[in-house]
Write a structure and sequence with these properties.
The chain has one domain (15-80). 28% of the residues lie in helices and 17% in strands. It contains two helices and five strands, in the order E-E-E-E-H-E-H. The chain has helices at residues 47-59, 71-80, and strands spanning 17-20, 27-28, 35-36, 44-45, 67-70. A three-stranded antiparallel sheet has the order 4-1-5. A two-stranded antiparallel sheet has the order 2-3. Strand 2 (27-28) and strand 3 (35-36) form a beta hairpin. The termini are far apart.
């Protein structure tokens, strides 16, 4: 007998990123709007999720200064700050 693992229990193999404003080094808030005051509240997700956030912001006419940064790079930036 084999045990099947439900799909929602699997971890994502896609690398996670953070969205950072290159002009200010601010991180996008985990809500997808505004700036996170602490790294614990910064948005993190996949590139596909970031593209969807960007698409929605542009459709709504909102500015999109955010650039994707790999989690390792974002962690290094947070330690320097």
């Amino acid at each position: 007998m084999s045990i099947l693992t439900p799909k929602h229990w699997r971890t994502s193999w896609a690398p996670e990123i953070r969205l950072v404003d290159p002009a200010t080094s601010a991180r996008l808030h985990l809500s997808g709007r505004g700036v996170a005051q602490h790294p614990a509240y910064a948005w993190s997700g996949t590139r596909a999720q970031a593209r969807e956030l960007r698409r929605r912001a542009i459709e709504a006419g909102e500015p999109w200064p955010w650039r994707p940064v790999n989690m390792g790079e974002a962690s290094a930036m947070e330690r320097q700050a």
